[in-house]
Write a sequence for this structure.
């Protein structure tokens, strides 16, 4: 079984970002907004800031109190939308329950929306037009490209239909001529469907969701899930799947680094388009 580690695949995305930065008259500036002290958000934002600085981007993290009003958050976004010194804007999710996440995501100028969640970017993705792509699905595609995993004509089964992972990944896989099935919590015969996958993607958020009986021998399995189990980070895929699959992404160290690397590339792409 081949272990599809994220580091080398992420490095090629980061190199692309560094190379493209050289041709820009400005150093792209990423602004990340975080509300409150949710430990996972603190850790994800720290990672993004660190990676941005490492590759030579400008990075600013705006930390606001948990009880920040929606109006105050929208005012900050308006300010960043209008600033020539903000090329990429990302509001870390989840947001506290008194704030409407969709209102906030829709307020970010589409050309600065480096998470690719604005309806205009989502629509363009589905129409096959040039868009800022959501980082995890685009990172998954870059992982497939790096390890030369064929997608054209293959059956890709995506377990999970969130707006962040499952749905946009379906659009991207279609753009690569895969035949795509999207499964979810109401899918009645998941093991049967999963067993027909050449490429099986798990984006559920529950450890052990994908068991060996759900995997066709030789299939490629991409584990997007990040779960905490007995104090350790694990994916959605049962470790015994290693005996059945031809290739599997580890957790941690698989899709996670691809997501961060694609955010860096998106920031550079956004800056290019704003010139
Ligand atoms: P989400 O919004 O909670 O969506 C989970 C999806 O899984 C839903 O579509 C849900 O179906 C489906 N589901 C739940 N239980 C299921 C079951 N027993 N069988 C089949 N489908 C089931 O989560 P998300 O934001 O997409 O994230 C999914 C996982 O990926 C999480 O662990 C998250 O931490 C991780 N993640 C990792 C990265 C990374 O960079 N590595 C990035 C983003 C997310 P319904 O729609 O029917 O409820």
């Amino acid at each position: 079984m081949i272990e599809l580690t994220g580091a080398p695949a992420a490095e090629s995305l980061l190199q692309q970002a560094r190379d493209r930065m050289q041709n820009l008259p400005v150093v792209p500036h990423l602004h990340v907004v975080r509300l409150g002290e949710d430990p996972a958000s603190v850790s994800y934002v720290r990672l993004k800031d660190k990676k941005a600085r490492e590759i030579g981007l400008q990075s600013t993290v705006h930390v606001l109190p948990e009880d920040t009003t929606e109006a105050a958050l929208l005012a900050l976004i308006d300010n960043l939308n209008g600033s020539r010194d903000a090329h990429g804007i990302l509001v870390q999710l989840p947001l506290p329950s008194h704030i409407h996440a969709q209102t906030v995501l829709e307020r970010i100028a589409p050309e600065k929306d480096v998470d690719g969640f604005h309806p205009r970017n989502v629509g363009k993705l589905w129409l096959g037009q040039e868009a800022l792509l959501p980082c995890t699905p685009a990172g998954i595609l870059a992982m497939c490209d790096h390890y030369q995993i064929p997608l054209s004509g293959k059956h890709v089964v995506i377990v999970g239909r969130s707006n962040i992972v499952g749905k946009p990944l379906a659009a991207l896989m279609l753009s690569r001529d895969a035949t795509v099935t999207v499964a979810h919590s109401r899918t009645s015969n998941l093991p049967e469907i999963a067993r027909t996958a050449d490429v099986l993607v798990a984006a559920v958020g529950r450890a052990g969701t994908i068991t060996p009986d759900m995997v066709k021998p030789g299939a490629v399995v991409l584990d997007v899930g990040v779960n905490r189990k007995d104090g350790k980070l694990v994916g959605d895929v049962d470790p015994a799947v290693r005996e059945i699959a031809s290739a599997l992404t580890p957790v941690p160290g698989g899709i996670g680094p691809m997501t961060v690397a694609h955010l860096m590339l998106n920031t550079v792409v956004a800056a290019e388009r704003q010139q």
